[in-house]
Design brief:
single chain, about 240 residues, alpha/beta, Aminopeptidase, 2 domains, ten-stranded mixed beta sheet, globular
């Protein structure tokens, strides 16, 4: 391995200011692999919201890309874009967490070579977003970026170690020992409406209904950490 073969990975963390696991992951990988410090960077998405440990200041940053209405989050988006233009990462990992007991999975725009390279390293299902909500999201406006959604109920020492190992492989371009055969790719056709969620209550993750497979579903009000009630998905052809 030579340094000119190493790739640069950017971790975007705390785009929602109360979701801090991405910062923990960045610190963990540098602790284990300080020699990779020049090849991995941390970008705190919403710095003020992170400092106040709240989801956002004026409006959800991850629903504000491409919008013209003035807000604190538009200033954060401008800073994020400037930082990415300066650092020029090869891959961008957008780290999110949820209180929902939905496991760990990717949320992606249309799959391309960069996103496929990332997905191939993790044994996570992939949700390719078709709903228009992607148009104002970070991943909908940056083709190198993919979101990793971690359930807080699924995070432990092995989760962090898995991220360290896989991100190190991404940087070093280490060959895969085995193909990822347990991964399912879903297309998110639309979001679950409040009425649908209520009519099917209780609705659980991976339950199949006429509308599709339900994912990212909250158990009850205590897990409602986003404005939607989950995804209706179908397996990609």
């Amino acid at each position: 391995m030579t340094t000119n073969t190493l790739k640069h990975v950017a971790i975007v963390a705390a785009m929602h200011g109360d979701e801090v696991y991405g910062i923990e992951l960045y610190n963990a990988i540098l602790t284990k692999h300080p020699e990779l410090a020049d090849y991995i960077s941390l970008i705190v998405g919403n710095e003020r919201a992170y400092s106040e440990r709240k989801r956002y200041i004026d409006t959800d940053m991850n629903r504000s890309f491409g919008l013209a209405k003035e807000s604190h989050e538009l200033q954060e988006i401008a800073r994020l874009k400037t930082t990415l233009r300066t650092t020029k990462p090869d891959y961008i990992l957008d780290i999110h967490t949820t209180r929902r007991d939905s496991g760990n999975f990717f949320i992606s725009g249309e799959l391309n070579a960069s996103r496929i390279a990332i997905c191939s390293l993790f044994n996570f299902d992939v949700c390719v977003m078709k709903d228009p909500v992607i148009n104002t999201s970070f991943i909908g406006n940056n083709s190198k970026a993919i979101s990793l959604e971690y359930s807080l109920k699924s995070i432990d020492a092995s989760t962090t170690l898995n991220f360290i190992e896989n991100t190190t492989k991404l940087i070093t371009q280490a060959p895969l020992a085995n193909a990822n055969t347990n991964q399912t790719i879903y297309e998110v056709e639309r979001l679950i409406s409040p009425d649908e969620y209520s009519s099917y209550s209780p609705l659980v993750n991976y339950e199949i209904k006429n509308e599709g497979t339900a994912l990212m579903v909250p158990k009850d009000e205590s897990e409602m950490d986003a404005e939607y009630f989950g995804f209706w998905c179908k397996e990609a052809a």
